[in-house]
Amino acid sequence: MENNRTPILELKDVKTYFRVPRGVLKAVNGVSLTIYKGETVGLVGESGCGKSTLGKTIMRLYRPDEGQVLFEGKDIWSYRKKEKKEYTKNVQMIFQDPYACLDPLSVVSDIVAEGMKIHKMYSKAELENRVLELLGMVGLNRDHASRFPHEFSGGQRQRIGIARALSLEPKLIVCDEPISALDVSIQAQVVNLLKRLQKEMGLSYLFVTHDLSMVRQISNRIAVMYLGSLVEIADSEDIYSKNYHPYTRALLSAIPIADPAVERERKRILLQGDVPSPVNLPEGCNFCNRCPYAGEECRKKKPELRQMEPGHLVACHRAGKI
Amino acid sequence: MENKKILEVRDLVVSFDTFQGSVQAVRGVSWYLNRKETIAIVGESGCGKTVTIQTVVGLNPKKNGSVKGGEVLFEGKNLLDLTPKQMRKVQGNQLSIIFQDPFTYLNPTMTVGEQIMEPYLQHHAVSREEARQKAIEILKLISLPSPEENMKRYPHQLSGGMRQRIMIAMALICSPRIVFADEPTTALDVTIQAQIIELMNSLKEKIDTSIVLITHDMGVVANMADRIYVMYAGQIVEHGDSDTVFHRPKHPYTWGLLNSVPRLDKKVADDLYSIPGTPPDLIEPPKGCAFAARCPYAMNICRTSQPPRIEFEEKEHYASCWLNHPECIRRRGPVRREGASDGK
Amino acid sequence: MEEMKTMTFDECAFDPLPEGSLDQDQIARKKTTYLKDVWRNFKKNKPAVISLAVMAVVLFFVLFGPMMNRFDYASNDYNSVNLPPNAVHWFGTDNLGRDLWTRVWEGGRVSLLIAVLATLIPEAIGMAVGGISGYIGGKVDLVIMRTIDVLMGIPSLIYMILLMVVLGSGNIMTLVIAISITGWMGSARSTRGLVLQLKTREFVVASETLGASSAWIIAKRLIPNTMGIRVVGITMSIPSVIFYEAFLSYIGLGVTPPAPSWGQLIKAAGEVFRYYPYQFIIPCLCVSVTMLCFNLIGDGLRDALDPKLRS
């Protein structure tokens, strides 16, 4: 269905492991995913599922142990020096913690200008105008430019982070939980801003989050991740209406709805227990110890992603039967 | 439910002196709590909800001068008048608090069992063995798997959800009359959040306790609260029971809070509603309505005068907004909330 | 409610405000800079402020004291030997008839110059080495840190004596190099520790994703952010360097006479302390006051820079 579109980033069976004292932590354990030009892919999962590691692997901050990351068809780990620098211009990141992601000793204009100075994109006079232009795009003004990060609220800081990411005119932005540290009323501000910028600049996003309700507002497709592997990939609306994987269903059911009348009627799938440690993964399906439908096969064999409908992939032995 | 007030806060004013001026964090807040009831204080970060709770439980003692006025009545006593020693008897015993981030409040060098027992040993003349039994009992109550074993562990060996449950166990071991929960689920994953909400709701039935919930997440509120206080810039702007506030809110800020929560049971909107801008700096609170700068319905009068509290037909439902003023309704007609669903 | 009905309203009181008439992202607070903040907190510490004032006075005399009378520090006057303080020779004279007022302030110049240079040079080296070691990590870090471990195991006096022998003693630069050669290691270790904490912070990672080189990150992100804590270390190490210089002069490894330094003056006067105590007490007082002041200033800075006390 996506045939007419060009892929911008392809992940091919990416595995990122960490050596820890107790063994090998398989943070990303064989993820294949394609992001097309101009689309937003939501990557959803609970903490510790490896979604942030995947984001950082794409940023070239971690080198995958196996598999390939292809940007516009070329493996990002085969780059020469010049290409590496070019890559940082093409792919940018927005961070989770609006308090930690800005240098406390730099004023806002220096923070936003940093990338452009590194890449020597503008002359000094142009640079100042460009910084103001970028701040304007995220709703901040000249008065804000000379202030320090600690004078801003969380939402404003996150907008500064967005201006910094935009400064290099990237093609793809990895948003690593950009809204999870913000108030719900401010989250929508940031999401709307990202949507508007996407429309104006033709950006692609990988939107990493644990929040299935907000990610729906921005994503074209959603990938659900559990313990290092993708369990379901589908068009955004299908995840909510035609989902197959019991984990996706549990995630959706856990989201509270802001209406007491609806909540009273609602039946919840409560998952038992916590996410197991990614150091010693279960032999069969990663989800089998929390899954209410787990059978014999699930405990023995790891399920592969298979196509349930065009463009809708699910990794579950019992998908479609439950 | 017996409608008996066990805690009442009257006209609480708290401000902190900084070199830039005094930050008026809480500007005359009144609320009460009934027995076996859950109330929610809802607002964005920086609206003064956490400061209010800290003042009530005595983490913000009067002697440092930040409490500028008001009273906190608990069982007929004004908690603000107690000496630190008297307050310590109430803290952790009759009033206890669950923090947002359990990791920073747990001692990394003590086993969680020791930490759960600690408040019980402090407030009761019991042997360690009795305290241990009590701790196990509480852990079973909050359905923590294999309590005996988990008590021997250290905080870093537990997951986020487990740590939050340990905090809850610590808060509950003395069978407090009131539990204050400051964003108890914000740091947790949704599946764990659902577990904790379920747990806290069931506890109200199991042990005779009331809950004061502080959060910015209307979804959590819908699941837990009986009554809701909406707080903005250090003031209560709307109050009512849960159904009223969700289905017939009267303050534009409440409208904004409700509209900005994406709802899974609704279609995706083109543009998600958001409250624009940032809450005002409480060093110089605006002269008129504090919300005026962010309010799409702001009028001339909002800029100059504080809105009065206006009551509505539902019991104890009130809001502070000029839109509800009879004179405004006479001149402009009732202003309706945009993009609202009127519930069922 | 009664009151409300009696209120009267303007004609246009309930007219909607035009959009954008109030600033939604307004920051009401005055602008502050980091330095202003630090200064405000520093001022609260009275001993530190007094010390700063005293140091300013000492510095004034060190700079202008020698010009205040007609004597220079090296010329002898055998008619006026070992005079006690008087109207002509304000601090008296020494056994060669040299004016002590001039010699004390001239000696202060030498001592303070050595102190500042022998603190800043090793600090700069230490920051660079510590920054590289901490940020690059891996084998580079291993080699650097083990080298420092080995070098630190050797008593620093041995290096100094060796260096003096090789470079010839008596020169200010020799002294600075001798003190610097051991001084950078402590600063390198401390900077490395701070960098290790900082380098996983998101704002450093953000610079990496913007394509910054290691040199850029170390120079623009890491070192400035360790500076706050290192400044205290720097201020605190000045008195120990002053003492070190005095000590080296005392054992005969310092600057060569007639050039004075505080250590040199103390050494010379120590021999005749019983007969002419004023010759000894004045330079001792200078060293002690300066050391005390720098320690108190360092103390004040530590409190002022402590992030917990800010905000």
CATH architecture of the largest domain in chain B: 3-Layer(aba) Sandwich
Share of helical residues of chain A: 25-40%
Mean pLDDT rating of chain B: 85
The CATH homologous superfamily of the largest domain in chain B corresponds to P-loop containing nucleotide triphosphate hydrolases
Q: What is the general shape of chain A?
A: globular
Can you describe this structure?
The complex is a heterotrimer of chains A (322), B (344) and C (311). By secondary structure, chain A is α/β, with parallel strands linked by helices. Chain A has a single domain (7-314), classed as Rossmann fold. Helices cover 34% and strands 24% of the residues of chain A. In chain A, strand 7 (172-176), helix 7 (184-201) and strand 8 form a beta-alpha-beta unit. In chain A, helix 3 packs parallel to helix 6. Chain B has helices at 49-56, 84-90, 102-105, 112-123, 128-141, 147-151, 160-172, 190-206, 218-224, 242-247, 252-259, 300-304, 326-332, and strands at residues 5-18, 21-34, 38-42, 67-74, 77-78, 95-98, 178-182, 210-215, 227-232, 235-241, 309-311, 318-320. In chain B, strand 9 (227-232) and strand 10 form a beta hairpin. With 344 residues, chain B is of the alpha/beta class. The model of chain B has no long low-confidence stretch (mean pLDDT 85). With 311 residues, chain C is mostly helical. Chain C has one domain: MetI-like fold (Orthogonal Bundle). The mean pLDDT of chain C is 83.
What is shown here, in short?
With 322 residues, chain A is an alpha/beta fold. Chain A contains twelve helices and twelve strands. Chain B has 13 helices and twelve strands.
